[in-house]
């Protein structure tokens, strides 16, 4: 089976470019999601990784679609390899024209390690630029921060109700353990 995986970082971004490229290559099934690459627990990626069997192929248009963390990327590569599947990154050279398999694998590994380093470095640069932008916005007085998701004044009734339930539990002396997946709220 040929599986494709497409990812963008946020809900307002578009998957069309990735989906088009994966369809051109001829996927049997494409998994797609809108979630940050900084988050290692991505449901659709986990689904396709669990589904892989020996001989299957997992396609992405570029390595950054899998993530930007070197250690996590290595984990994904190993998982695909240990399942006997093949990971195909469409924007990387294949080195298929090199007859010597050892040399071909050596060149692929060097290239992949270099790209993993670049992906993680770019993520760090993005965070630095983001922090710099926030600091400048604060100085201009236009930075508002992240929106408040739970509280007495939020418009979403379910979130407001959750807030008051938590306050009630805390006032009663109960311990509250709350797990929130912010990306699931729209």
In words, what does this structure look like?
The protein has 186 residues and is α/β, with parallel strands linked by helices. The protein has two domains: 2-124, Resolvase, N-terminal catalytic domain (Rossmann fold, 3-Layer(aba) Sandwich); 146-186, no CATH class. The chain is built from five helices and four strands. It has helices at 16-25, 43-51, 70-82, 101-140, 157-171, and strands spanning 2-8, 29-34, 57-60, 86-89. It has a four-stranded parallel sheet, sandwiched between helices. The chain is elongated.
Set out the fold topology.
Layout: E1 2-8, H1 16-25, E2 29-34, H2 43-51, E3 57-60, H3 70-82, E4 86-89, H4 101-140, H5 157-171
Parallel strand pairs: 1-2, 1-3, 3-4
Question: Which features would summarize this protein structure in a list?
Answer:
186 residues, alpha/beta, Rossmann fold, 4-stranded parallel sheet, disordered C terminus, DNA strand exchange activity, DNA-binding, Site-specific recombinase, DNA invertase Pin related proteins, Resolvase-like_N_sf
Distance between the termini: 34 Å
Strand tally, please? 4
In what range is the share of β-strand residues? 5-15%
Overall geometry: elongated
State the helix count.
5
- State the secondary-structure class: alpha/beta
What Rg is obtained from the alpha carbons, in whole angstroms?
21 Å
Q: How many structural domains?
A: 2
What name is given to the CATH topology of the largest domain? Rossmann fold
Output mean pLDDT. Answer: 87
Largest sheet: 4 strands, parallel
Please name the CATH architecture of the largest domain. Answer: 3-Layer(aba) Sandwich
CATH superfamily of the largest domain: Resolvase, N-terminal catalytic domain
CATH secondary-structure class of the largest domain? Alpha Beta
One letter per element, helices H and strands E, the order comes to EHEHEHEHH
- The unreliable regions are 182-186
With strands numbered from the N-terminus, the spatial order across the biggest sheet is 2-1-3-4
Oligomeric assembly: single chain
